[in-house]
What does this fold into?
Amino acid sequence: MTSANQQNLTTARGAALYIGAILGPGLLLLPGLAAAEAGPASILAWLALLGLSGLFAAVFTALGRRIPSAGGVMGYVTAGLGPRAGRATGWMFLAGVVGGAPIVCLIGASYVTELTGGGQPTRAAAAAALLLIVIGLAAAGLRASARAQLVLVSLLTVVVVVAVAGSATAARVANWAPFAPYGWLSVGSAAATLMFSFAGWEAVAPLTTRFADPARQLPRAVAIALAATTALYLGLAVATIGVLGPRAATDVPLAGLLSHGIGAAGPDVAAVAAIVLTLGATNAYINGAAAMAGQLVRPLPGRRLAPMHRLLAAIGVAGLLLITLNGLGIVSTAALVAVPSTLFLTVYLGAMTSAVRVLRGRVRLAAVPAALAVAVMLVFCGWALALPAAVALAVCGPHRGRVPTAARQLSCYR
It folds into this structure.
């Protein structure tokens, strides 16, 4: 894409890209996972996160207008909390992508095995194959274009609308009782898990400079994206509980809804959509993370691996290990989701805290409850809190001496 084209992002296309950043294959898994953790009360977690998503949208829009930079969330945290915090945030974000890639592949594999049959080993083998395909395509230089991302967003939207609308007649009020079978604290655990599907508002930052008139277009694009994602998330969450009832605690909720909506072809449609979304979304995640990796990782001398290939190697090694552990039944899907969810929560906590320091007016007030809400969700992450702590220690440990001056801050990212 040329530089000229990059400056011609329309409001509608920007909104679609933001929707694509929030929606993804996680939507195919998390309604069932949240239902397994909190039962029908998981709808409260969805509602809370949708409200929090509105705060995220407002804060990241303001940050994007105040600090128009392609550096993304790492630049935001640096502006308010300093270079060490910014660098730690960048590494946590990369770690979240590395931990999230195998989950996306497992989601696609779940829908395949739901259609073809097979247990956890078969699912793990399919997920490993999807991961290797994505890594191979990325290594070959294939990058999903903005138009391809728009097609993926449209595909996911159509499939979700068909599933929700088509299965509406099968909804039963009795499926909402008992409402909180695992206690009210389970809602907090479900909310922490669902954060995996709500990370994405930080994508506002790199796109800010691509609008011809950011002050006018950016708020409109974000408002459209917020309305669309709210409708899709809430519709799917309500349908999963109301239609599937006791069977809502599944890794393939969309297949169940489509079976009610369009009959026997439902699992086939869900499997095709899941594979396409897995390949496209993972490719987009990897290429998006590669830009940040280029700022954080120093190129090695000679002909050694470039930052992009080192990132792919990390995703491959960590992804195959996590998929294997899941296939052997050693690590559950919920535990895998806890890894990137906790890392992304920490990234957002840094961004919201930084926003409190650098923003002014009403949007600064929005950052305060957002930061508090993220901090509360982190309490429910349990053992996974060791991950961001380890990343922060590893990044900041070698730099315990003098903090770089403002003139030298950029050198921290090169």
In short: Confidence is low (pLDDT under 50) at residues 1-6, 399-414. The first helix runs from residue 3 to 6. The chain has 17 helices and no strands.
